[in-house]
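Changelog excerpt

This revision adds worked examples to the README so contributors can see how folded entries look when concatenated. The first example is reproduced verbatim below.
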Amino acid sequence: MASATSVTSLADEVNCPICQGTLREPVTIDCGHNFCRCCLTRYCEIPGQEEPEESLTCPLCKEPFRPGSFRPNWQLANVVENIERLQLASLRGLGEEDACPEHGEKVYFFCEEDEVQLCVVCREAGAHGAHTVRFLEDAAGPYREQIQKCLTCLRKEREEIQEIQSRENKRIQVLLTQVATKRQQVISQFAHLSQFLAEQQSVLLAQLERLDGDILKQQEEFESLVTGEICRFSTLIEELEEKNERPARELLTDIRSTLIRCETRKCRKPEAVSPELGQRIRDFPQQALPLQQEMKIFLEKLCFELDYEPASIFLDPQTSHPKLLLSEDHKQARFSYKWQNSPDTPQRFDRITCVLAQSGFTGGRHTWVVNVDLAHGGSCTLGVVREDVRRKGELRLRPEEGIWVVRLAWGFVSALGSFPTRLVLEKQPRKVRVSLDYEVGWVTFSNAVTQEHIYTFTASFAEKVFPLFGLWGRGSSFSLSH
């Protein structure tokens, strides 16, 4: 039995050039080409043609032929029939047992127009007589090509999604690591604080205990002194009361010495709490100053470890556009329409008025603050760029070029993404904090005064990045701070 591939190749040789289907009632014209009788008949039917004997041209070679000259090709018809028989046998050999639900015959054909599968009985029925009917494998060929194209596109899109999944999973793992680190930092810092607080509590309570004992001791001494004084005064009072009750002769006996003894008696007015002890009590709150200082250090250290690390940024004069005037400490820049006499090095920007920081980052979490002072019509661009960013010629400020920046202009702020986005803010920022999380891929901008979030870019960093600063407009300037 012939193989399915060889049978298919033979079937391709007996296709009608007009309908591209298997020849039906093949006829031959003067030039020798073969066509389906019905296809050639329709080809010869020219609208408005009154002389049927007028010469036509072959659909393939364009040789003239007479409409009535085509002859039945019985030998070719037998070949077509044998080929179809071989194809049917080949399909049976493949074990495809799907039967036509209407006639119960095996399905071998496919109607292109109605997109239905047909058995032999269906094919010979009048409903599909004028349609393009192919064997299943022949009809499946073009669809297989379309499926292959779809598969190529879908696989490409799946790969892109898998890359996104991998990138985002890495970002999530970095964030989880950061959160775990922060958790340990919080636990460690609070454990240290708890130990310090316990120690300080013991110290302060011991001091209060000593104060309490000293107060009770002075209270005991005071009570003893006051009791003695009261006792002496009570004795004098009783003596005078008794003297006063005696007759005149007895009252006047030694009266002067008695009165002198009472009049010269000085009353001591003791204090329950000594001045020194009172000062110690008043000075006790000063003992809590180390606690206050430690709490301040604790909060600063905790916030430092949980937040971004302040970066020390200096402007790089080797990259500065000639219209930017840098301060001697490389912390400030001012725009000038007058070009500076700067050497044209490969590192220097020559079209966009920008400057880079002297140092870049290959990891970590960093933050810096930019004070912006814009004149009317001025603008300032802030963010980060890849180390290999183009320095010469026009440069489009967008992530695709390795640039993640926002632009502060007179009256509005824009994020320069793939398409610039104008941002709605409560207040035009004059002091902007730029924060970089290299591993996660975040470039965040916020108002350093109000802490209002401005914008966050998400990227995937694989090489060194540098802080970038752009400036435009006479009278506009910026300065750097932590």
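The second example, added in the same revision:
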Amino acid sequence: MYLTWLDSNSWLIEIGGKKILVDPWLVGPLVFGNQEWLFKGSRKSDRQIPENIDLILLSQGLEDHAHPETLKQLNRNIPVVGSPSAAKLVQELGYQQVTALTHDEIFNLNNNVEIKAVPGSLIGPTTVENGYLLKELESGFTVYYEPHGSHSPSLKEVAPIDVVITPIIDLALPLVGSIIKGTKSALEVAQMVKPQVMLPTAAGGDIEFDGLLLKFLKAVGTTEEFRAKLAENNLATKVLEPQPGDRIEVPLERRVTNSFAA
């Protein structure tokens, strides 16, 4: 299994001989609702779009997960799996093979990888977006991805999970609280599913941010503090910190895992 972090929440997961592009923001700026004055993310140069993508996987319909400018650059014939909100967006962009997964539904990718949607982040008053469990069918290795730190208790049913990709620090706003939950929730999910490896997501990488919102955002926690919490709780989980663009082979040992099927 190989993982490449492409900044922010964007990942290339190579599992079961397939290349899965997750929540890609690779070209152009990141702006919510055309309000650059409020928040804008940008790079000095665009990221190269990976070749031979087998699947695009989208956890949410928001711009930092289903980035319109990036999706317009990708081949519309690439299959897409996404939350209902993300699936609606890519259908409107002209993608030809789109599967909307609701919670607990499973998508089979060429009998190599099973992808199960699990409850993820609450967006707005009622919409719960997706996290994902990806299982390599030949080896049984599993990857869990949730980009805001909202972890469903149902994960206990498929523990242990080998790789967890989730925030390990908090990003908070005054009066609102944490919009990215990492410090407490990352430890809770580690205790719940006993991963061999954890990797942080939602961090900036090579990105520069501007806008009024930055004056109020507060980051809480560090990777070293999280490693110390794992040790204090007798968890042997390794925390890897890839640099943007680095393709890393994840060191895993085979162990017994449960099926996603009920």
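Reviewer comment on example two: Residues 2-242 form a domain with the Metallo-beta-lactamase; Chain A fold (CATH 3.60.15.10). DSSP finds four helices and 20 strands in the chain.
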